[in-house]
Amino acid sequence: MIVRLMGEGQLDVADGDLAALNSLDGELESAIEAGDETAFRAALHALLESVRKVGKPLPADSLAPSELILPPADAAIDEVKAMLGDEGLIPD
Fold it and tell me: Per-residue pLDDT for the chain (92 aa), expressed as one digit of tens each?
């Protein structure tokens, strides 16, 4: 799955890594629903770090379409809330 980290580029994430990312996405959603800025910030950073760790960077000139777009690390809670779909940032 091709994932775009806004402001950073694209990474290829194996389907086998999606379950762990979904768990982190659930923590992020819970923090947003609770309006907990501290938990939100920690969950967002954990999710982005995990994607960076498991993903393989694509070349900067790659034209592959992104299947997921994740917000930058400095995104505000309201910005991320607006990006959430029915299944969070990372669909099941």
Answer: 999 999 999 999 999 999 999 999 999 999 999 999 999 999 999 999 999 999 999 998 888 899 999 999 999 999 999 888 777 787 76
Report the domain count for the chain: 1
Is residue 89 assigned to a domain? Answer: no
Going edge to edge, which strands form the sheet with 9-12? Answer: 56-57, 9-12, 2-5, 68-70
Q: Which domain holds residue 51?
A: 2-84
Q: For the whole model, what pTM was predicted?
A: 0.90
Sign of the CA dihedral running 12, 15, 17, 21? positive
